[in-house]
Amino acid sequence: MNLRCILPFLLASFSAGAFVFNRVATFNICTQIDPTCNTDTEAVAEIVDASPDGNTLLYTDGVAGNIGLVDISDPSNPVGLGTIDVGGEPTSVAVTGDGLYAVAAVNTSPDFVNVTGNLIVIDIESQLIVATLPLPGQPDSLKVSPDNQFIAIAIENERDEDLGDGAPPQMPPGSLVVVDKSDTDPTMWSTTLVNLTGLDGLRFPEDPEPEFVDISTDNVCVITLQENNGIVILDLASLSVLTSFSAGAVAEITQIDATEDDMISQTESLNDILREPDSAVFIGTDYFATADEGDLDGGSRGFTIFGLDGTVVYESGNFLEHATARYGHYPEGRSENKGNEPEGMTYSTFGDENLLFVLSERANTVYVFNVDPTDPSNVSFKQVLPSGVGPEGVTAIPSRNLLAVASEVDDRGAAIRSSITIYEYAEGTAAYPTLVSNNRADGTPIPFSALSGLAAADAPGIGGQAGILYSVDDSFYSKSRIFTIDVTSFPYAITNEMRVMDSDGVLAAAFPNSTLVNDDMTVNLDQEGIAVSREGGYWIANEGAGTVGDIENPVTTANFVVKVSTEGVIETVVTLPEEIDAIQVRFGFEGIAEYGDFIVVAFQRAWGEEANPRLGIYDTTSSTWKFVFYPLDTPSSQNGGWVGIGDLSPVGNGDFVVLERDNQGGPDAAIKKIYKISLGSMLEVEESTTVEKTLVRDVLPDLAASNGNIYEKLEGLAVTSEGEVWINNDNDGVDDNSGEQQLISLGMIVTIPEGTATPIEDSPTVSPVQGTSMANRVGHGGALLVFGFFALL
Ligand SMILES: *[C@@H]1O[C@H](CO)[C@@H](O)[C@H](O)[C@H]1NC(C)=O
Ligand SMILES: *[C@@H]1O[C@H](CO)[C@@H](O)[C@H](O)[C@H]1NC(C)=O
Ligand SMILES: *[C@@H]1O[C@H](CO)[C@@H](O)[C@H](O)[C@H]1NC(C)=O
Ligand SMILES: *[C@@H]1O[C@H](CO)[C@@H](O)[C@H](O)[C@H]1NC(C)=O
């Protein structure tokens, strides 16, 4: 029994009694259109609320113009109940406290000046609209008071961002509508407009633009005025404004990344950043929290807890930015633009925990904090949860120990479907994150994402340390790195990052005038595969960019392999024979493996007119290539697409396992498989033969086990000397991707032949085909072999 088998058991016995949230289901909104989501039509969920019994969810679909219903009586198996057309764009929905009605704010404005809207009242049982109350403008957020007496509706009358410089003030001004719903007949409910112009603390007092409302058990209403960086506190019974104030600025946020330079640097500071809060939620009756998303000039990348008089009792500083980086969810592409962007939030009591949930719209995560309602300066982080892309709405259902989060982005072409994620609060351990990073020396987390290859230190024939994996990032980032992952305890930990360096000028000599090498000798590779070498150091496969003859995607870099030392310095560059480069397609090197004196590289897809992708077998002793073809599965997704190789790993005796995947995600994903092939002694493999493959594992069920949408890019595969198989996904730098990082052990599913787990002494050579090594080859032999072996221990 290895250490990793014992640890979860120990963790479980120590954590008895601990309650955590885990994802139990993902409901794709497209299933309301087609049960298998075989549709390109956009269907989204933005704001979500639950019926008082917690069995039904209602959500707004502002794109389709309807309110959707979902039965969650079995939370792990949500069932769509259809949609109700509301004749406009619903901006918010809430269920009344008696459970009779869903009330929806609906925008019907033809433009930004002629502003109109309705409050639609839906009888939940019959699913019929029973009342339509006109609103004096374009609504945004809406809430029903906890005592079920009032509905507060923010009438935003949002600005036209394309008018002039887009800045407020822009007439007409927004306001608040308060509905007195005491009459049993919803058509008789009375509405009152509350004028919010001219208040203290606003940047544009003539143009309030209210964004979000929440109501306390005292019937006090908090209203955020995002563009105004303002907050209004109002008494619902008397309809009087109690106070209004500026949400203020965060004086300094340190150690963050405020520059989009293809690196997550965490070395910058921002000063006097306006909070510009979006959502707000009461914490008891005397405090409220705001999600400081930002809009015009601000966005302080965190959340704040205020007293009702505007006193700041807690400010999260750089916590969310760092947490986001620590879990691989940092959106580098938003560094100059409000970072993780906290947007939605809610507060609720589960068991004996008082919990604040904060949704990061750009990181696609939910952060859960314990916040003491009697002392809300006492905030402690509990856990992180993965959501769909663009989490916007959240509702807590403590009576059923459930939490629901609506993620609004729906883009089938990008393998993203809008969804509602259901999480359950139960005794146990958190299944997410699977991978977290340790800190750098400066106290910030080692940032990581776009992990595109995987290798075990103790891969068969290598002999390195058990419990260690290596990964690499791809061309999403500059200054390429190799990551060390400790998998002896869960969550798995990134314990080290190492930049690949061209200190000896080997890469620069191989590719003069290229932008592959930076001034500081770091390199910008498109690392798609990594293998550990039995001689010490690593082999890295660089995927070339561009396709020969394609004007839109011309060839800018070639496919090549680099050997780097244990210190990360490039020692060798191995390029392809010229005639192979001559048929380059932009789906190139994707995986690499070492076995004996050979390295094997997998091309992602077929090149030129060829029917199948190549596997390149490179003999390091003779510097010669030999190629065979790998027979890919035929795309079987309902959405078509293509299939390619994601990675490969040695399993002893010249056998390899190969990861195959289609370019589909979510309900369209069909092919995520591990096959085994044999290259035998590699000497006997005939040039240009098509190898035979046998299925080792269909990993779709393994991926589905985390109850999320299947991710498209399964790009990491590693096998240990004991036959344990690991897979990992490339989360694309959280760009058109949820950022979810699933590093999964499939268990000991491969048998490693006896005697092949330890380093190979020597290997037969293949007959030369093309000699094209860029020389500088590392020496090799018995002495080096032994040195390499011990260096890895
Ligand atoms: C608003 O409505 C009026 C009357 O229907 C129309 O003339 C005008 O073009 C609309 N738009 C604006 C921007 O005023
Ligand atoms: C709101 O109050 C301002 C003065 O504070 C007034 O000019 C404006 O007309 C009022 N708006 C409405 C809709 O009553
Ligand atoms: C802070 O809150 C936690 C619960 O979240 C509680 O256990 C702890 O005692 C509180 N600490 C202080 C100093 O009040
Ligand atoms: C590199 O650039 C220099 C000057 O810009 C040029 O003279 C030289 O031929 C280039 N080398 C290659 C290999 O393209």
From TrEMBL:
Source organism, top-level taxon: Eukaryota
Keywords for the protein's UniProt record, in alphabetical order: Signal
Signal peptide coordinates: 1-18
InterPro entries for this protein: Mesenchyme-surface_protein, Phytase-like_dom, WD40/YVTN_repeat-like_dom_sf
Domain annotation Phytase-like: ranges: 446-732
Gene3D superfamilies named in the record: YVTN repeat-like/Quinoprotein amine dehydrogenase
UniProt xrefs under PANTHER family: MESENCHYME-SPECIFIC CELL SURFACE GLYCOPROTEIN
Protein name: Phytase-like domain-containing protein
Organism per entry: Phaeodactylum tricornutum (strain CCAP 1055/1)
